[in-house]
Design brief:
Elements lengths: L2 E5 L4 H12 L3 E6 L19 E5 L5 H11 L3 E4 L6 H6 L1 H9 L3
Parallel strand pairs: 1-2, 1-4, 2-3
């Protein structure tokens, strides 16, 4: 069984991708920000699937992400987590850059 890691799994694109990969028979690990703890309605239905799990992680903390990758050992990694608020991206461009591409 292939294993996929998805950052930003609570967002629109990440949640749709998780659904698609689960339908294709993947084991999926989703990474979500702690700030998204209350915002899981897009993935709540996935928790009943034994092939889905999630973990908290911060895209600006490569050590935490590396730990998740090391323990899950995914075959594929999809980075759907990013700063998506235009106004905030202009107000804090360094944070936006770190969030959107730091793991590349």
């Amino acid at each position: 069984m292939k294993k996929a890691l998805i950052t930003g799994v609570t967002g629109q694109d990440g949640s749709y991708l998780a659904e698609l990969l689960l339908k294709k028979g993947y084991k999926v690990m989703g990474i979500q920000r702690r700030a998204s703890y209350f915002n899981t309605e897009r993935i709540d239905h996935l928790f009943s699937n034994p092939n889905f799990n999630s973990s908290y992680g911060d895209l600006t903390d490569p050590i935490s992400i590396a730990g998740i990758i090391e323990s899950f050992k995914p075959d594929e990694i999809y980075n759907m987590g990013a700063m998506s608020h235009v106004k905030v991206s202009f107000e804090v461009p360094a944070f936006t850059l770190a969030t959107n591409i730091s793991l590349l």
